Amino acid sequence: MKARLKYPIFSFAPKGNMIYVFRKEELYTTTNTELLKKRKNYIVVDATGTKYVEKGAHKVKWQGIFGYCIRMQGRVISIEYEYGDNPEPFPLRKLQELVAERYPKTRWFKEECWNSADEFRQAIFACKTFEEVADILMPE
Question: What φ, ψ does residue 71 adopt, rounded to 5°?
């Protein structure tokens, strides 16, 4: 199934700790061939609070000159995702709980200058929209 996502979106592996934020479709649909091989059953939550499960992706076209691009390593491609047939609601509170549990375990957490995991959790749970959560994880 193809989906029309409302950005920003949150993308994460079912078991990993890293949560990726994409603000634009172009960034989400551009990757290199090596990273594409590693993505399996990633979960995507869009700004409407809908959860999709990636079931696969296929190359649409090469980026740059035959996939070689100065700004990224490896051969760069534009891709199109296929999602499972049953998107589900994913409330803001559930996303906040997931982010509060997983993100402090990443190596990026300390680099973002948070004093403590509690301070981070308070900031996440104070958010009223998906966009506010995205702003904390990836400021514009």
Answer: -80, -10
Q: Which domain holds residue 101?
A: 92-137
pLDDT, tens digit (0-9, with 9 covering 90-100), for 36-87: 887 889 999 999 999 999 998 888 887 766 656 656 666 788 899 999 999 9
User: Is the same domain home to 34 and 84?
Assistant: yes
Return the closest-CA partner of residue 54 out of 75, 23, 31. Answer: 31
Q: Contact at 8 Å (CB) between 28 and 20?
A: no
126 and 79 fall within a common domain: no
CB 30 within 8 A of CB 77: yes
CA distances from 51 to 31, 34, 54, 110 (A): 21, 25, 10, 28
The whole-number pLDDT of residue 51 equals: 98
pLDDT tens sequence across 92-121: 999 999 999 999 998 888 777 788 899 999
Are residues 74 and 102 located together in one domain of the fold?
no
Distance (Å, rounded) from C-alpha 102 to C-alpha 13?
A: 11
- Shared domain for 29 and 82, answered yes or no, is yes
